[in-house]
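Sequence in, structure out. First:
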Amino acid sequence: MSQIEEATGAEAALASDIPSFDTEHLPQARIFNPWIVAMVVTIGTFMEVLDTSIANVALPHIAGSLSASQDEGSWVLTSYLVANAIILPISGWISSVMGRKRFYLVSVFFFTVFSALCGLAPSLGILILFRVLQGLSGGGLQPSVQAILADAFPPQKRGMAMALYTVAILCAPVLGPTLGGWITDNYSWRWIFYINIPVGVLCFILTRIVLEDPPHIKAQQAANKGNLRIDWTGLSLLSLGLATLEIVLDKGQELDWFGSHFIVGFATVSVLSLGGAIVWEWNHDKPIVNLHLLKERNFRSCCIIVLGLYSVLYATTYLLPLFMQQMMGYDATTAGFALSPAGLFTMIEVPFVGYVLTKGADPRRLVFFGLSFIAVSLWWMGSMNLGVAEKDMILPRILQVLGVGLTTVPISTIMFRFLPKEQSSQAAGIYALVRNEGGSIGIALSSTLLQRKAQVYQQVLGQNMNPSSPWVQQFLAGASAHAGNSADNHYTAMARLYAAMQQQANLLSYMDQFRALGLVIVVMLPLIFLLKRPPAQKHVELDAH
């Protein structure tokens, strides 16, 4: 009973920060099976998340066909991520103004339209413009779907619903590079955008039929009608801060971080804008983003775990294919297919985790085991060498995604449990923003540290490559004798020795990155003890009714 009282107290405290709405006299919505609703709206989420990674392998083709450099072509990815970052946190507020169904339909419609226009773009500048508009249109789909599932299912069945959502957001980034590479090699890079058209049309039609706004969303719309106040200051500060932060994270390594005036300027603007946005939104009576939700212990702790988890997941997804191509000699398509079995295991495992949660399993224990699996898998990856077989890279990746499935489904279930239903859209927007920013931070840091650590190891190993060293002389003599004792062959042997040193320095750097990511997971384990367990199932059922 103490847990029930604690939950009730938390909800009451948060409810005091929001207006109450009369839902008695609102028209009743049509009722569809929530599983039909879940499957329909998840289509849009899968499509949108897929577009964050599907263009990665096509960048050389895009840049070449549009007469642009590789650096210029990378803005095709950056522009989409920047637009996504702007719309994610404010999607909850937009839902309360437009209605969640209308916002979702508008997002799907324009995402589909701008996908088609991306495929038709005649120049890089126009393609980047349409990618920005595509990111703004699709950015609200992820948090909208999570809020829809939180409202459509009672708490005791929410685990299975979040499992479906988790399959979409985990499998889409894994399948994106493989699918994008296959489409680009067999057809054209333009088809990575055209494939969104039939999926978007189908999602729009089905969503229009099955989705209805819950009473509290209709009540919020009614309250806003004729009394709409837009927090322009908060919106401007938040948009500017998140856009510049995403540019800093995406372009930092390429431009040498704070050695670049461009990065320093954007980082300064980002810090000042986000700092101002936090202060402004915290004290505003009707904020664009309700930061007071972070006062709830479960939601706050889950956001921190999600930030670290997705930093590690996206960093590993970036490092492993690069390791397989750079160090093991795999081509991009083969590396993508080698990592695909992990996605298959996710699809099998996640529904099982959702089922276990519906039977009353303690979600905190699942999170603990999930994070432990991830930490073990990363330490396993950190022990790889240049002689490993393909299965030695696939198995730790499978263990990692099994741990991710064990973690993300319970987290998605319990982080909303102690929040008022009226705040589900706002909470989902914050959650989606934390997840995406975590991914950007993970990739930015891992790519930077990978190169910096390789340089450090190269210096250390180079100090031991003294020409008078017996083992260096032995290597050069053997290599020269094998190729014929001539001056040219001696220099060739020295070049081979230098290449071997670089290879070992890069290998040591990769190993350090994997182990450092594992340490991040270990550091997050104590946060699990701060989580409150959701009330027992019989009490939840009473609450759901």
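Second:
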Amino acid sequence: MNEPLTLDRFYSAPRLSGLKLSPDGRRLVIAVLRRGPEPNEMRSALWQVDPAGRTAPRRLTRSSAGESAAAFARDGSLLFTSARPDPDAKADPDKKIAALWRLPGEGGEASLLLAPDGGIEGVAAALNADAIAFGALLHPAAADLGDDAARAKARSDAKVEAMLFEDYPIRYWDHWFAPRRQRFFVAPLPADPEAKLEPVDVTGDVGPVFLESDFDVAPDGRTIVAAWGEWSNLPATPIDLVAIDVETKARRTLAHGDYYFGHPKVSPDGRSVVAVRTGFGTPDKAAATSLWLVDLATGEGRDLTATLDLWPEQPVWAPDSSAVYFVADRLGFVAAFRIDLADGTITCLVSEGALSDLCPSPDGRSIYALRATMSVPPRIVRFATTGSDQTPVELPCSIDDGGVAGRGRVERVFATAPDGQQIGSWLAIPPDASAANPAPLVVFAHGGPVASWSAWSWRWNPHLLVERGYAVLMPDPAISTGYGQKMLERGWGHWGEAPYTDIIAALDGVLGRDDLDASRTALAGGSFGGYMANWVAGHTDRFRAIVTHASLWDLRPFHGTTDTGPDWEHEMGDPYHQPELYDVQSPAGHIGSIKTPMLVIHGERDFRVPVGEALRLWTDLRRHGVPARFLYFPDENHWILKPNNARVWYETVLAFLDEHVLGKEWVRPPLL
């Protein structure tokens, strides 16, 4: 805890995700991401952890391609995806397919179940049957997996990479919805661990929008429940909840309308489905999220969380189907909740820290989860399924992270906005900051925009700045989650108004402290936070420097180039007939007021905020004589994920801040 958090320590620390609990409750499996042997790669492996905390963790998989946990089968075998080569076939170094593998519950060598040419997109295993469901990518006209492989070979032989689109959307985050589209398959899980799967395509027809691989399979393996998009009537962008009968392939709609349904989970008794339901919202009313409970037989549904003024996420079932557990942003944390179906009682089981990956034990007594704080990365914890405001117990024999943590003091601070709303923030301060040695301050504006600061981050980590002597303020302004629907309404569709004044109010609220230097401040943000950075630049010159990453600059052209443009009309309105809101809320309209030095950062493969936003911003800054630099990553998307690229990101940001906030000489990162 007392060791400096250097970039070397930061990037050598293991990163935990995808916690899974075996059906018998005796094994936890987690994906552990570490630096790989190649200069600019991260590699994931699966580890087994003892829930009882008696035995040391054990690594289960090892390959040059890495592995990701998918699901436990009924027999306790572990299903996972990996692009590792098939040991029974000649290796093709140019072909890396996310294939499906099976690791026996008692240990041993993993066997290849299926390697469709387009790769596996999500896996679900039946609770009470030897059956699995999975998504796979196929060419639209392909009759089956074999035909798809033949079509891919024909394209490859002809050196053709062209894509034809006939519907919307055509891309998402960092990938194109072509030349393949997702379909659903089911297959019996063979008793022979060496046998291959014999999958059956149950999609029925091709053309739905699968933004995420959101589906589950019923305990008896006879029904798939999925999020199913149909966007032929833009700007309507619904994601329905559907059930697919495995035997007949018939599809029926369980819930639809002006909503997105996602993360469906079938109850262990097979009678119900719970899913996250998010309303679209309109320019006059913010979107809202709840948990929707559906009777699988009748389709009758009801809102489970109508009285909860928060946005629930990641629902999972109690083993006896009597309750649903979920997490939600709450007052600067990500709390864990239980809702009892019989009477609708909602209990906050854990209120502090940031919880995720809830895994209820089969005996119904405990929940295993990942828990992070603002100072410590995710670790495996356990808490009871009953009892409010518990303090989770960290598993004693878990993955060793080398004690990586932030050394700065972390405080929860509050300020008052001009309209009287309380604004909560996190403040990370160097341990030696004092009245005699006040720290310069950097404000981090969060992305989203519907999000909040609540946990350790591997991308925007304040403690790396704290190690350089900076304090970091992380405010949750209007449109942040965890503070009720009113907080979202304050910023919905009007990003440059209350969100901006809230950030300034949060800043003013801490600058009276004697351990902070009010004369040396900067602001940085990514995505929506980058939008806020651009907006701040055009509305005040109180900051010495501004860092804007993956940022929105001009909202009207952004609407036509982002991956799901019509979706933004639910908040900003119709840009073709009422473009006023887009124009008024665009930072580009205030370019003439920008005087603050700016560092612009963007990745070429960013489809959510296309690189054209950065190019326009850069041109406008240079044209208007604003001191600026542009850090460009041709091989990154919305996030800078490769470790050496991320190191360059931090080196450049810190050098830029040192130059303008501390008055030091600019030091160009050596790899640039």
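Remark: The mean pLDDT is 94.
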